[in-house]
Design brief:
alpha/beta; 5 helices; 187 residues; 22% helix
Length: 187
């Protein structure tokens, strides 16, 4: 789906788009996109009617997202009711978590160091809500910040039911790090 975003070379996550309708149909409250960057995923979900809270620590990216909130239209979608996007400039840190328990009906976290904040994300997710996580790829030395094989599955624990889980080993084999993409629903 070709979306117009604040950064023209960036399009929404293709894997997230596979689940976007499922997330939008279930979303009764706000959807957290953290970090949202230029808003590629926030804009796509808002075009499906989701109200988005986009959090990022880069004010320039958030300003670009604010300026592009009008034209978030996919050529493949009919113009329907579009959701609103609210932006917050903040660091995502577990010891200074901004959001209340059960504050969001869905959470999207793409290309972020997820391990430390995953428990906070799950806490802020409503029962029955979806969490979508897509770690960054294993490029250069960033494999060091990726989870170990099976780590995210274990961190999700009994509080969620996995709907989709894909893991690919990256970096030196002895470190056992992996790129992960997952969709889970909170029980």
């Amino acid at each position: 789906m070709p979306f117009k975003t604040a950064h023209p070379s960036i399009s929404p996550s293709k894997t997230l788009l596979r689940f976007a309708d499922r997330i939008a149909k279930l979303s009764t409250g706000p959807v957290l996109d953290a970090p949202c960057g230029y808003g590629r995923n926030a804009l796509a979900l808002a075009s499906l009617g989701c109200n988005i809270v986009g959090v990022d620590n880069d004010l320039g990216r958030l300003s670009a997202l604010e300026q592009s909130k009008g034209p978030y239209i996919s050529n493949d979608l009919l113009m329907g009711e579009r959701g609103q996007i609210t932006t917050i400039c903040a660091e995502l840190m577990p010891d200074r978590w901004l959001f209340a328990p059960s504050a969001f009906s869905a959470i999207v976290c793409v290309h972020f160091e997820i391990i430390d904040i995953l428990p906070s994300l799950i806490l802020s997710l409503q029962k029955g809500g979806y969490i979508y996580v897509e770690t960054f790829g294993g490029h250069g030395q960033n494999f060091r910040a990726l989870p170990h094989i099976g780590e995210l599955r274990n961190l999700l624990g009994r509080d969620t039911e996995l709907q989709y889980y894909k893991e690919r080993p990256v970096g030196p084999a002895q470190l056992k790090n992996a790129c992960v993409t997952l969709l889970a629903q909170k029980c």
